[in-house]
Design a protein that fits this description.
This protein has about 220 residues and is an alpha/beta fold. It has a single domain (about 5-220), classed as Rossmann fold. It has seven helices and nine strands; from the N terminus they run ααβαβαββββαβαβαβ. It has a nine-stranded mixed beta sheet with strand order 3-4-5-2-1-6-7-9-8, sandwiched between helices. Helix 3 (about 55-60) links the parallel strand 1 (about 45-50) and strand 2 (about 65-70). The longest helix is centred in the middle third of the chain and has 14 residues, at about 135-150.
Length: about 220
């Protein structure tokens, strides 16, 4: 799986991963990130592989600055258009940055982010990033994320777990053991909840799944 795969998904509007409402786990477990009111003074909330997620709008509504990273310029353009915003655009070597009303999306490759880009980040919300990556890319992703975030950053992570042999991803199955193997050396890993979601996702049952749960984790970087 390479960059072209995701760019083509956006070009063909094959974006079944996009949610038309704010993720309920974000609302439910938001306090676990420990971001106090007036969060802009404490830093940004980082949303990797953000697409045009409405979760960014909700996060901004909590008084926090939001930083997203997204490969597809179509996703970035659609996000601001659908929110009725005209972002300022700053072109750079690795990223074109679009910003409006406290939300900035860096359009480019996640793996080009550096520690300086994350200097103001205090928390991360990952609903659709880790599960979008095949097994061979996960270790690189987790290692890179941990290396660029400030110490003490908290990550709210949502994953799917199902028999991988029953369906090809994305989204890919990511077990609790996998999360602990990926992040255990760099962070405290706490499982907040496990929810059976197969009945709520008939399209995955139609693809052959017999079991599907969502796991919600809080990771605290050391």
């Amino acid at each position: 799986m390479d960059k072209e795969f995701w760019l083509e998904r956006w070009e063909r509007a094959e974006i079944g991963f996009h949610q038309d409402e704010v993720n309920p786990y974000l609302r439910r477990f938001w306090p676990e990130l420990g971001v106090a009111p007036g969060g802009e003074a404490r830093g940004e909330i980082f949303v990797p592989l953000c697409g045009k997620s409405l979760d960014m709008v909700w996060l901004r509504g909590q008084g926090c600055a939001v930083l997203g990273v997204e490969l597809s310029p179509i996703a970035v353009t659609e996000f601001f258009h659908e929110q009725g915003k005209s972002p300022e655009r700053e072109c750079g070597e690795a990223f074109d940055r679009y910003a409006a009303d406290g939300i900035c999306i860096a359009c480019g490759d996640f793996f080009d982010l550096r520690r300086d880009d994350m200097a103001r980040v205090s928390a991360v919300y990952d609903r659709a990033s880790l599960v979008a990556l095949p097994p061979e890319m996960r270790e690189r992703y987790a290692r890179h994320l941990a290396s660029i975030l400030p110490a003490g950053s908290r990550i709210l992570l949502v994953t799917f777990d199902y028999p991988q042999t029953e369906m090809s991803g994305p989204p890919f199955a990511v077990s609790e053991a996998t999360v602990r193997a990926l992040y255990g050396a760099d962070a405290e890993v706490r499982l907040l909840a496990t929810e059976d979601v197969l009945d709520q996702n008939p399209r995955f049952r139609q693809r052959g799944l017999s079991r599907m749960v969502e796991n919600i984790f809080l990771l605290t970087l050391r």
